Amino acid sequence: MTINGVLQILIFFLVILLVTKPMGAYMTRVFSGGRTWLDPIFRRVERLFYRLCGVDPDQDMRWTTYAYSLLMFSAVGLLLSYALLRLQGYLPLNPQHFGAKQMTPDLAFNTAASFTSNTNWQSYSPETTVSYFSNMVSLAIHNWMSAAVGLAVAIALVRGLARRSAQGIGNFWVDITRATLYVLLPICLVYALFLVWQGVPQNFSHYIQATTMEGPKQTIAQGPVASQEAIKMLGTNGGGFFNANSAHPYENPTPLSNFIEMLSIFLIPAGLTYTFGKMVGNTRQGWALFAAMSVLFLAGAFTCYHFEQAGNPNVARLGIETHSTSNQPGGNMEGKEVRFGIADSALFATITTDASCGAVNSMHDSFTPFGGLVPLFNMMTGEVIFGGVGAGLYGMLIFAILAVFIAGLMVGRTPEYVGKKIEQYEVKMATLIVLILAADILCFTALSTNFKLPPGKNSETITSADLGAGKKLAATPATWNRVDGSNPPVYEGATWNNTHNPGAHGFSEILYAYTSAAGNNGSAFAGLTTDTPYYNLTMGLAMLIGRFLMIVPVLAIAGSLAAKKYVPVSAGTFPTDSGTFVALLIGVVIIVSALTFFPALALGPIVEHLQMLQGAMF
Amino acid sequence: MFRQLRPAITMVIAITVLTGFIYPFVITGIAQTLFPKQANGSLIRWNGHIVGSKLIGQNFTGPMWFHPRPSAAGNGYNATQSGGSNLGPTNRALIDRIKQSTEQYRKENGLPPGAPIPADAVTESASGLDPDISPANADLQATRIAKARGLPSATVNRLIAQHTQQRTLGFLGEPRVNVLELNLELARVAINKRR
Question: Do the chains contact at A335 and B125, CB–CB below 8 Å?
């Protein structure tokens, strides 16, 4: 690690610390229905939205109505995107003439589910698959809508904690409208223009044909990149305009744009901790969550940075500089950009997986084993370290409920959290949430690493030669992979040949994929080929489960808490704004995640680390 | 049961119109007015035709040019197929490739066997379109270029120094040299010399 690298991480954290209160206070006003300085501009648009949609903004919804509205809204968005993606060949703004041939049914399902669930996993390569229209409308609208939904759920849960003996938890339509108009839109307007200034393109022209200095032609992809980049980062979505995502110089051209992109991932999630404290009437409660998140964030950032700078001994042995000097970055530069170097790449990887963003400015697949373990573990915590827009706060509040429950067990008292008794119902729901995430990740990973069924009678065989002709690797019962050169022929099912790396790393690729899907992150060990019917369908399901099966129990807790009376603080109350609670909360997050996922991690990055140190190669 | 269906449909449409159409077109309008160069891809023209983009790396193989990093985008610097190699740290393919690149780099630049090589010179970037190399990488190539072009080494070193971008605000990112801009400068020097 270098002094400058450490400084970059600490300055980033300092800036987050500084923006948390103003951002949180502003969002408190927005979601309490208070006046903001944007009212003169957006108040009329807001009223227009309610009129068009037939919404009574004063109606207070029970949690069931709230959840039902949310599911309907997301279902409509999902179907719309699926239809628009399949029909992209007939839609405008398509200078490269992409059609349904590129956007197959399974891929369109995966992509629509991915963007609706705020995951933004990309089984496709954008430059060669989707039109400008698909990027800008069919996909980017979900960057807004899913971020607004996440914010709404977090605010609803906070209302549940803050309200006393109340029936409702707010109005879903009002919450997403205000989230879009007063939080996301104004920031994105300024932010997108900043990105253009830094060099991010914003046009609708054909791909540019350049004749390079040495003669060969270079085709350069273009598009309305900046407008999408802004909401992609701010809404912790992460779906890149280009395949290389925020590593692409057109998405992230300078160290300054990189710093602002990292900042914009954490801006809303950090601010929400303050909003929470403000709404429950004790800002120290919010800062306690902030403190727990900060410790976990800094631990992850420095761990990742350390291992990436230490580099790969197998590479160092060839006479490659691994130590950083004043004029070269050293470390593990495979899959990293020179302008970001090691520190900014490790920091970005930590931030993007702490949050449910999933944008990447370096290729995680090429990280050292422990450098790659950090993003993987971050996602396995349920992305509660600042976390996704809204999703991070409600995830951490679920852990807070578990933490006070465990503390209550130790002293034999009914636990309380911010003045609400935590009882059987809440703990059941919180446990359910933790279990759903674990099952979602582990069951799909186990299935995919063991999926070997004999081919059926009418099975079509796919060999590597067929792949060149554009065929997809097998995955439906009607298609099977034949292992090249095997005699007698060996057939393998869905996952054969999809991993890009052999050995433990190949297992890590599959584990990472389902962790990313279930956690709605969207970053990848991108060597894994997932554009096959099997992966598209299972990952699409994993994403929808990881999103909506989590949100419903969260809203159930919100509804149950809202109805409860306020319990005044007494001598027996465990103070949840203290250092003890922060330590307990960190402990619960780490222990729950580590106990659940250690065996899987041991088979992947941990064993690979030991192999790497021994100089083993595969 | 279907009472929330109408708002669900109309809200999706309203947000789509606002964020899928109005927002990107407004941004495009302002961006094309305020920052036309960047908004159109920071393209560079040479003798009237487009030779590339300042931000997008392109391949140089001849001995008279600074070479960029190895690239995994398509067959190398394909700017419609961005991406990294995604090879893991214990993959023999990665180690073999780096070994080969290292030997080639030493040979091209007249370096003795075992001479330390900057990591960025033999590793593939994340985008496959990295426009930059580290100053150390540029320095190691200077002697070869000076020889191929018949320029004094000092001139080439001066050009590298002129085109080295330091960390933004003194602490952000890493020092770097834009390969295309530096090579264009070499071409300009060559033209001036002929005059």
Answer: yes
